[in-house]
Write a structure and sequence with these properties.
The complex is a heterodimer of chains A (201) and B (89).
Chain A lengths: L6 H20 L2 H17 L10 H21 L37 H14 L2 H12 L4 H8 L3 H22 L23
Helix pairs in contact in A: 1-2, 1-3, 2-3, 4-7, 5-7
Chain B lengths: L1 H12 L2 H10 L7 H13 L1 H22 L5 H15 L1
Helix pairs in contact in B: 1-3, 2-3, 2-4, 3-4
Classes of the chains: A mainly alpha (201), B mainly alpha (89).
Chain lengths: 201, 89
């Protein structure tokens, strides 16, 4: 039986390569997996259109690229979380927390909610200001060394540290608003009106 | 002497703002001995910063799991295979 007769073989032969391609671009496992699924389903549906001018993988990656662009457009249209305070605004003049970090519980994310949590986390990363998101994706998601991050972003180590710090502060608060209920110890702030953040997809 | 006094003062009087920055920095670089002690001393009596540290680590743990898997997860593979089979039938 030829390759084109077996969709399972497409998955076996190209699944991991498509996933790696998508993952490098979107940075989140679940989103990348969904993109691979959409790509394979679309490709199988329209397999008659494959003329054989290129390899099948090139054709699949071309479809995947369009899916990634659609995914980015979708995310760009999502409602924004609102302006989170600058890092300095998290603390009062004596350097103490203005809004105390709320408890996330002993087991903050139930195993069955893991995927939804990661989507919210991905959504929060997307809502970070561009410079912080770029630094955070490089350093925390892709685990590029600090020195290489500085080289790629063209910033000093101390500047990178500030960006990452601000990103972590904003992410923590974003998750608190978007996933965890704000704890009783936190004082109400205007941002708490923003409500639950929609998952990234 | 002045240097040691300054370090001691920093260790004993680190604020939440300074220590939260150290908590973030320790994800990216090894802290100096002075910074480590400042962080330890402050965390011993500040539940908010301790909570912040747990939360930062929690976020990191989710991000690391993303990185660890080089290919499609078995769960995703099964799901895609089922969808393809359904489409094919």
């Amino acid at each position: 039986m030829s390759e084109s007769d077996q969709p399972q073989q497409w998955l076996e032969q190209h699944g991991d390569a498509l996933f790696a391609y998508a993952w490098r671009r979107v940075g989140e496992r679940e989103v990348a997996e969904d993109l691979v699924q959409d790509t394979l389903l679309a490709a199988w549906k329209h397999r008659a259109k494959f003329r054989g001018d290129s390899t099948r993988r090139t054709w699949l990656i071309a479809i995947l690229r369009r899916k990634i662009i659609d995914e980015r457009r979708k995310r760009a249209n999502m409602p924004t979380l609102g302006v989170l305070p600058e890092a300095g605004d998290w603390f009062n003049s004596r350097g103490r927390w203005k809004t105390k970090p709320a408890s996330w519980g002993n087991d903050p994310v139930d195993a069955c909610e893991m995927n939804d949590f990661r989507r919210v986390l991905a959504g929060c990363i997307d809502r970070l200001p561009e410079d912080q998101a770029a630094a955070f994706k490089l350093r925390a998601v892709r685990e590029v060394s600090t020195q290489d991050c500085c080289k790629q972003l063209g910033v000093t180590t101390s500047n990178l540290g500030v960006r990452l710090y601000r990103a972590r502060m904003a992410l923590r608060r974003c998750l608190e608003l978007g996933w965890f209920k704000t704890g009783p110890r936190s004082k109400p702030t205007p941002e708490s009106k923003i409500g639950r953040v929609a998952p990234a997809k | 002497m002045v240097r040691y006094l300054k370090a001691g003062l920093f260790i004993l009087s680190g604020t939440c703002e300074q220590v939260s920055r150290l908590i973030s920095d320790e994800c990216d670089r090894p802290l100096t001995a002075e910074e480590r002690w400042a962080s330890r001393v402050h965390l011993a009596y500040c539940p908010q910063c301790h909570r912040f540290r747990v939360q930062v680590r929690h976020i990191n743990s989710h991000l690391k799991e993303h990185r660890l898997a080089p290919g499609l997860s078995l769960k995703a593979r099964d799901r895609i295979a089922r969808r393809l089979e359904k489409l094919n039938s």
